[in-house]
Amino acid sequence: MRSRIPITVLTAGALVLGVAACGGGAEDTGTPAETPAETAAPGAVQEGPEAARTTVARANGDGVAVFADPDDTEPVLAVPGTSPFGFRQAFLVLDENGDSLHVLVPGRPNGSTGWIRRADVELQTIDHEVEVDLGARTLTLRSGSDVVLETTVAIGAPDAPTPTGRFFVTDLLDTGDPNDDYGPYAIGLSGYSNELTEFAGGDGQIGIHGTNEPASIGQAVSHGCVRVPNDVITTLATTVPVGTPVTIH
Amino acid sequence: MNLRARVLGTVGSGVLVLGLGLSALPATAEIDDFQQCVENEATPADDCYDHPPPPPPEEPPEEPEDEPDVVDDTPRRADPNFTG
């Protein structure tokens, strides 16, 4: 049998215990790109002073079923939940009907629309919009009613003209090389060339990008993409989120 | 000093040394045992101090926290294949 007396004596020292607490600071992960998009109330393009704000639906799962009519039960199209470059699929919201959203769908033919289920997406609002004027060969970036930048651009050559219509940003790519054919960044759009069904291993998707031929800016020499100076594409790619509307006219 | 006193003195000294030795040696290893008894509000009648402490209760495994649903629109390193 053990003696209890010494244990009692030593207990006084044993009760003097300290608790160490570790403090952890937030890790600095560098400089993330701004995400001007924010969660939005359901609805289409807003009216009034914030008329430039656009509602965008981003896929929240593996895929989004597209219906021809909001009450249909059989989809006419299944769009993957991510773009080929891994961005969460975006749809430009045009209207709503109960639990369904009327959206602009990425892909051919340009300007395709359909209805998707609200449960399949997360809604965001975007303040920015891009306008490309093919006649003036200019690109304008706006935030609300404010002009953020305006620049001269190169557009599609006569045999591969830049398609017109309302599109939106689907991909934001970093080429890793300012001297790349596409410059330092390339922005994929939801539209496709009406002449080319394949190009550089792709399927004719149009985009906005920089260039290693700055002298081409202002001319109609591209295969359908919109070329901008490298400093402009750097600003664009690090400012606009996926889903940003792009109107080409 | 007579023989009786010598014998008792020797035996008493031995008992004292033995007692001190026994009391000092295990005590340092029994702090946790004692603390456990105190935490269990054991009384001497429970004979707690003569038994090893019960194993600590198993803590439920921590469930992974749900990652925030954040849309990452940071430009990604890739070779574009747009129409150029």
What's this, in brief?
The complex is a heterodimer of chains A (249) and B (84). Chain A is mostly beta strands.
Describe the protein.
The complex is a heterodimer of chains A (249) and B (84). Helices cover 7% and strands 38% of the residues of chain A. With 249 residues, chain A is mainly beta. Mean pLDDT of chain A is 84; it is low at 1-50. Chain B is an all-alpha fold. Strand 13 (165-174) of chain A pairs parallel with strand 1 (76-77) of chain B.
> Helix- and strand-based class of chain B?
mainly alpha
The number of helices of chain B is 2
Low-confidence stretches of chain B: none
Radius of gyration of chain B, in Å, reads 34 Å
Structural class of chain A: mainly beta
Major sheet strand order of chain A: 1-8-2-5-6-7-3-4
| Radius of gyration of chain A, taken over Cα atoms and rounded to an integer in Å | 26 Å
Q: Which geometry of chain A do the CA atoms define? A: globular
Oligomer: heterodimer
Helix content of chain B: 40-55%
Helical segment count of chain A: 2
SSE order of chain B: HHE
How confident overall, as mean pLDDT of chain B? 67
Q: Main sheet of chain A?
A: 8 strands, antiparallel
β-strand percent of chain B reads under 5%
Q: How many E strands of chain B?
A: 1
Question: How many DSSP E strands of chain A?
Answer: 18
Give the end-to-end Cα distance of chain B, rounded to a whole number of Å.
Answer: 117 Å
Strand content of chain A: 35-45%
Shape of chain B: rod-shaped
The string of secondary-structure elements of chain A, in order, is: HEEEEEEEEEEEEEEEEEHE
